[in-house]
Amino acid sequence: MGFTEFGLSDHILQGIDAAGFEEPTPIQALAIEPAVAGKDVIGCAQTGTGKTAAFVLPILHHLAPAKGAGHSGKLPRALVLTPTRELCLQVQQAVVRYGKFLSLRSTSVYGGVGMEQQVSALRRGTDILVATPGRLLDHMQRKTVDLSAVRILVLDEADRMLDMGFIHDVRRIIAAIPTHRQTMLFSATISPEITSLASGILHNPETVQAGERRNPATTIAQHFYSAPQGAKNDLLAFALDAEKMQSVLVFSRTKHGADKIHRRLERRGIASVAIHSNRTQSQRERALEGFKAGKFRVMVATDIAARGIDVSGISHVINFDVPQQPEDYIHRIGRTGRAGASGDAITFVGREEQQYLARIEKFTGSRHAVKAYPGFVPSSPESHVKQGPAPRPVTKPRNKRGGNPHPRFQPGRKRTGHAKLESYSSDSGGGGWSNY
Predict the structure, then answer these.
(1) CATH code for the domain in which residue 54 is found
(2) Which residue, 131, 102, 127, is CA-closest to 118?
(3) What pLDDT score was predicted for residue 184?
(4) For residue 272, what are the β-bridge partners?
(5) Domain, as residue range, for 283
(6) For residues 348 and 372, what is the distance between their CA atoms, to the nearest angstrom?
(7) What is the pLDDT of residues 81-123, one digit of tens each?
């Protein structure tokens, strides 16, 4: 089946051809037809299978008249909600790519940057608005956006939005949109929470599913290697050299860990860059562009970026840390082996991370052997421990009567204030706890 089978206009087909696509992916083949027919759609497919085009093409079909003319109104007629900045930009880029021969206007709004340019773009008018929930709510509160003309709503990566705590923001946004509309929901997994959300916002949806919900793409070869925690950096450098990897995405559990991995790679002469929610939007964009252009051999990322990185040609994904949630494992390794290409996923498993591997195996229904990496000999654990001076003996002070000191007195300890709690930002780097 080709794209000509869906009844798309010649202008859209020209855009698809210019983008270099000839045959639809399975999720596109299943979702585009009912979406073009105006039905509500629930689409479930693995990460990296082309879900973006599955809803962008029907949006272009419905909003653009047959001759490719534009729209004289200023209010957005289609709204796409995404969980992260990177995915927001990715979707808008797809709109521009496939709508190259149309006169439709699109705008993306997301956090991490100033609002002035976004406000100006909204005032000029747009047909398709792509947004992260937190920043869109900011515009709604400032009355710089009007959603009363929206006739198509898309929730992209809905499971990730729920995982990141956006459910209340999403419901507030949906309440501001006309109830008479077409709604499409796309997700890598369909949890009970997703089902509950869908039941309240979709009308007689057609559910389409491509592939197994819990399994990564068959084009991805998975490898699991034992790695003492202190030897992971050595193993990473060894593997990069042994397999001559050139376009590698390394996942760290925390921002601090990502920066640490990046610095150690740089010290070894391996060009790398780190991307996470502490980076400004311009820094994140430069990092992605540099990685795409081959300036950086390795990009180190946290899970916040797992679904927002759409870089063709990633040969390897390396899980420096085993993710605690099995869903994150699927999303991480889905950055390689995209759109039918082959890829390799490597996971370093420390002794204390066996429990997380067990969760992945239970989730996917597959068992994975953890092997020693061929040719790698870790140095002794002691070599990774910094040896400091021997601790000085502590002499307990005594009071004048020779008894124990005052119970509130703690020798050798400084008094501190209250513990500082990690904060949650609904749109810092697309949302998430601040240590990710």
Answers:
(1) 3.40.50.300
(2) 131
(3) 97
(4) 298
(5) 220-382
(6) 10
(7) 999 888 999 999 999 999 999 999 999 999 988 999 999 999 9
